[in-house]
Amino acid sequence: MALIKTLARIGMEPPLRHMVRTLLRYWPTSVVTRSLWDVSSKPQYLLGVLTGAQQALKQGQKEISAIEFGVAGGRGLLALEREAAAVEAALGVQIKVYGFDMGSTGLPCFVGDHRDHPDRWKPGDYPMDEAKLRARLTDRTTLILGNVRDTAPSFFKTATAGPLGFVSFDLDLFSSTRDALMLFTSPEKRMLWHVPLYFDDIGTLSSHRFAGELLAIEEFNAAEFTVKIDQWRGVKWKRPFPEAAFLDKLYVAHDLEALGHVRLNRRRVASHPL
């Protein structure tokens, strides 16, 4: 066992780590190993879904929901579907996938100022070819089309979905991301205690906390909600490629209210032992 750990550590050192990852692309391996070595077309999705499923097992949950906000052509949603199937097969947690998008109309109208980054996008960008995408999706995945201002708050009222286990935000705009985050404020919401999140549009020269997804996160946390969003602490620890750009875009939604109940229940059990 000590020898195996030593070899694994050596394999993570440059330049061997690049050779190891190349070999893993052609060698059958587990989803845990693929996630550690970023062997995926969307490693952020694999890591997020895998972590969500592992959290579900810890909480005794048998199913979770994985969501992509902002589908467009569907390449990301198809990757999420594939990784959800792989994680489900490996861990035994049922995973349903949902894709939220405006559909053929592309990005909606902006708020009218700098907050929606008019320097980067315009209304109508990234339209979806709905028929083409639906033909490629399996029964695992559900498309939810319309403005997220309307579809996100009503998600738990209309969908018999498991608790939120992973959510990706690729809506580009502050206004759409702000509205999508209302998923975590619904009175009917179902979520794990710690839900991995991925924010796609926060890593460029034009990104700042006064607009876009970063502003949506900041405003969400400033409101009096029982869910808070923070960076994914320690996610780079002991990874072969800690410099991977996607790791800086990973966050976690923490259900503070649920965690408070867990602590209270444990106190009750401790004070009334069997």
Structure characterization notes:
- The chain has 274 residues and is an alpha/beta fold.
- The protein has two domains: 1-39, no CATH class; 41-271, Vaccinia Virus protein VP39 (Rossmann fold), CATH 3.40.50.
- The chain is 39% helix and 16% strand.
- It has helices at 2-11, 16-25, 31-36, 43-59, 75-91, 130-134, 148-151, 155-158, 174-180, 212-222, 256-271, and strands at 63-69, 94-101, 141-145, 164-169, 194-199, 227-231, 250-255.
- The protein has a seven-stranded mixed sheet with strand order 3-2-1-4-5-7-6, sandwiched between helices.
- The chain starts with a helix and ends with a helix.
Secondary structure: elements and pairs:
Layout: H1 2-11, H2 16-25, H3 31-36, H4 43-59, E1 63-69, H5 75-91, E2 94-101, H6 130-134, E3 141-145, H7 148-151, H8 155-158, E4 164-169, H9 174-180, E5 194-199, H10 212-222, E6 227-231, E7 250-255, H11 256-271
Parallel strand pairs: 1-2, 1-4, 2-3, 4-5
Antiparallel strand pairs: 5-7, 6-7
Helix pairs in contact: 4-5, 9-10
Summarize the structure.
The protein has 274 residues and is α/β, with parallel strands linked by helices. The protein has 11 helices and 7 strands.
